[in-house]
Design a protein that fits this description.
Layout: E1 7-10, H1 18-28, E2 32-37, H2 40-49, E3 54-57, H3 63-77, E4 82-85, H4 100-127, E5 132-137, H5 150-170, E6 175-182, E7 185-186, H6 190-194, H7 201-212, E8 219-220, H8 221-232, E9 243-246
Parallel strand pairs: 1-2, 1-4, 2-3, 4-5, 5-6, 6-9, 7-8
This protein binds nicotinamide-adenine-dinucleotide.
């Protein structure tokens, strides 16, 4: 995959999960990567981890900060060719128990943030008469979910709807819009969270992979990065409006272990 000469913004690229794998692959493929993070501390940590990348601070849930981010990026790093809407937050609470603040916070980042960043990205392409590419990060929850994730699942479904809709609106302007939908992406740091519902997180992960996936291997963040790199590259020039599920077959199963 050759992404040399491409200027790509990755939102929430300073995390230890999906964003890290995406940045690793894009940088290794020769892209000039600009990593967005929500505060200076996280942006600096991302800059130390990815020494070839540039960083920019903005809370993508805050429209003014998103506008300032685009003004800064265009001035400092030039026009962007690619955007990866990776930043996202979760919520583990049944929809009927969640309050309005929790709903607004999640939708403010996972839906409005994705729309707002995409809107400004597209407008800077149109202003400069350039082609470009967006890759959104959805989730298997947009396809099928579990109790406690209805609001997150609905937000990721909105991301897939936005992906198709913007692809239809922008195809004629040589702007493609696609998405990836990861399943459980493994990171050592996840064990801490998993410990909140089981005493043996390692065993829980092994069982999940065996019972819920068709391909019995841990999905690494780089596996998401490879698909993102493909969707940003010219190898996918006839693909738009699609969501690629990176879930080792989780969402194609009907019942039980296979
Ligand atoms: N990890 C998984 O198994 C998994 C599975 C499916 C989908 N996803 C999706 O992948 C994306 C990355 O998640 P992750 O699990 O790697 O989590 P993560 O917490 O490691 O990464 C998310 C990053 O986004 C940043 N962020 C959060 N809110 C932000 C904001 N308002 N502005 C700017 N940056 C912000 C965080 O600081 C963090 O670095 C999310 O969209 C998530 O929904 C993850």
């Amino acid at each position: 995959m050759d992404l040399k000469g491409k200027n790509i913004l990755v939102t929430g690229g300073g995390g230890f999960g999906v964003g890290e794998g995406i940045c690793n692959v894009l940088i290794a493929s020769g892209a000039r990567v600009v990593i967005n993070e929500r505060n200076r501390e996280m942006a600096d940590a991302a800059g130390k981890k990815h020494v070839k990348a540039f960083t920019v601070v903005a809370d993508i849930g805050n429209p003014t900060e998103v506008e300032d981010m685009f003004a800064f990026v265009e001035k400092e790093y030039g026009v962007l060719d690619g955007l990866v809407n990776n930043a996202g937050i979760g919520l583990s609470k049944p929809a009927h128990e969640a309050n309005q603040q929790e709903f607004d916070q999640l939708y403010g980042v996972d839906v409005r943030g994705v729309w707002m960043v995409s809107k400004l990205f597209v407008n800077q392409l149109l202003k400069n008469g350039l082609a470009g590419n967006i890759v959104n990060v959805s989730s298997v929850h947009a396809h099928s979910t579990i109790p406690g994730y209805a609001i997150y699942a609905s937000a990721k479904s909105a991301v897939e709807g936005l992906t198709r809709g913007m692809a239809v609106e922008l195809g004629g302007k040589n702007i493609r819009v696609n998405a990836i939908a990861p399943g459980y992406v493994h990171a050592e740091q996840n064990y801490e969270l998993i410990r909140s519902w089981t005493e043996n997180p390692e065993q829980w992960v092994e069982e999940y992979i065996f019972k819920e996936q068709v391909i019995h291997r841990k999905i690494q963040a780089e596996d998401c990065g490879y698909a993102v790199g493909f969707l940003l590259s010219d190898h996918s020039r006839c693909i738009t409006g699609q969501t690629i599920y990176i879930d080792c077959g989780t969402t194609i199963k009907l019942l039980g272990s296979v």
